[in-house]
Amino acid sequence: MAAxxxxxxxxxxxxxxxxxxxxxxxxxxxxxxxLLLMDDMGWGDLGxxxxxxxxxxxxxxxxxxxxxxxxxxxxxxxxxxSRAALLTGRLPIRNGFYTSSAHARNAYTPQEIVGGxxxxxxxxxxxxxxxxxxxxxxxxWHLGHxxxxxxxRHGFDEWFGSPNCHFGPYDNRAKPNIPVYRDWEMVxxxxxxxxxxxxxxxxxxxxxxxxxxxxxxxxxxTRQRPFFLYWAIDATHAxxxxxxxxxxxxxxxxxxxxxxxxxxxxxxILSHLRGLGLEKNTLVFxxxxxxxxxxxxxxxxxxxxxxxxxxxxxxxxxxxxxxxAWWPGHIAAGQGINFCPGQNVSGVTTHTQEEHTELPLIxxxxxxxxxxxxxxxxxxxxxDVLDRTTQVVRQHQEALVxxxxxxxxxxxxxxxxxxxxxxxxxxCLTPPESxxxxxxxxx
Length: 443
Ligand SMILES: *[C@@H]1O[C@H](CO)[C@@H](O)[C@H](O)[C@H]1NC(C)=O
Ligand SMILES: *[C@@H]1O[C@H](CO)[C@@H](O)[C@H](O)[C@H]1NC(C)=O
Hints:
This protein is α/β, with parallel strands linked by helices. It has helices at 9-26, 57-65, 79-88, 92-95, 124-130, 205-223, 253-275, 316-319, 380-399, 422-425, and strands at residues 6-7, 32-38, 67-68, 71-73, 134-139, 158-161, 179-182, 185-189, 196-197, 202-203, 227-232, 282-288, 320-321, 324-326, 409-410, 437-438. The protein has one domain (2-12, 31-343, 404-438): Alkaline Phosphatase, subunit A, CATH 3.40.720.10. Helix content is 27%, strand content 13%. The protein is globular and about 75 Å long. Residues 1-14 have low confidence and may be disordered. Bound molecules: 2-acetamido-2-deoxy-beta-D-glucopyranose (2 copies). One 2-acetamido-2-deoxy-beta-D-glucopyranose is lined by residues 195, 197, 202-204, 243.
C-alpha cells in the first residue's frame, strides 16, 4: 500500500525541526513555517476526504499540490492539551496538560483555570527563535491566560487573538467577556469590540485573522527574516461563525459557512505566499486540534467522516485529524492520498490498482458486502458469473453510441457563485472572469 502516512504531533514537530536544521545547513535562509491549526474541524470536513458537498476547493487543491495525511493524529481529543502537545512535542501527561481528577478527558483551560503552560516546557517558537525566526500567533492560545502563561513569554514575538474560547456573551459581572489581545495588551473583548452575533452567526474574526496573517507574512518578507506563523483560528468551534459574505452560502449550514470562509482564507494565504515568491521556501501545514464536536452537530459541528464518535473521545473520530503538508518544490504533488484508509486487501486496495480487466475481481455482495474476499478464480461460481457478465458487457459495447464528453473543460466562473435563489437572500457571489481550461484531475 503506497505511502500510508502515519504521524503524530511529536513526529510533526520532529519534521519541522529537522526541516529547519536541514535548511540552515544547506540554504541561505531556513524555510518559513506556517501552521494552520483548525478548531474542532473533523477529518470528514474536507472534500478531499470525501465530504460530499465539496466546499473546500482550496484545501483540496492544497492536498493535490502537496501531501495528504489520512492517518494523522492529535495527542488529545480536546483543545488545550492537544495544542500544548503540538507546541511542545510532548504528550499532555508530560507537559502538564491533564488532570488527575475524574472526567480527565474534559480538562482544558477555561477562564477559571489557574494553571497553564509551565516555564520548563520548550515551545516550538522558543526553539525557532534560536534559529533566527520571528514567530506570531494569530487566534486562540488556550495554554493559560494568567500573565506568566502569556504567549510572548513562551517564544512568540507577536499575538493577535484570545487566550480562551470565544464563549459568551457574559455579563461582565459574574463573568468577564474574553479579551482579545494585540501582543501584550488587550484591545477589546468578544461580544463588545469584537462582536459575534449568536443569532445570525455573523462575526468578522476570520477576516481579521486572515489580515493579520497576510500582514505578518509580508512584513517578514520585507525584513528578509525566516518566520513561523501559527494561525490558530476558531470559527469552527461552537458558537461557529462566519462573516457576512460567507453566511448562508454553504449546503452544510452555519458550520459549513465557517469552513468555506476558512477554505477561502487558506487559498488567500497560499496565493499571498506565491505572490511574494515565498512558496518554495515555506512549509505550510494544515490540521485540526481534535475531531469534530458531535454534541454541537449538525448546525454547529462538523463531520468525522466514517470514524466513530468525536471530540472528547479517544475513538478515531476524536483524534484522527485532517492534515495536509504543502511546500512546492520540496514536497511532490499528490502524495499520500490513500482512498481506502484503514483497508488493506491484497490486490484490491493497492495504490497501483492492479490491472484486473482480464481476470476481473468478483465479489458476492450478499455474502461479502465489504468486498474483502474475491471469489476464487478457479471456482465454478466465478466462471459462471464471469461468463454471464461478459455476455452483458459485449451486448452493451455493440449497442453503444458515445455522447459528447462533458467533463473535459473547467471554468472557475461556473462554480456555485450564484445558485438559483441567491438574489433573494443577498448571498450571491460574483464569479471571476470566465476562463475555460482543461480540467485537471489530480486525484
Ligand atoms: C463586519 O464587518 C462589516 C463591514 O465592515 C460590518 O458591516 C458588520 O457589521 C461587521 N459585523 C460584525 C458582526 O462585526
Ligand atoms: C497490506 O497488505 C500487504 C499484503 O497483503 C502487506 O504487505 C502490507 O504490509 C499491508 N500494509 C498494511 C499497512 O497493513
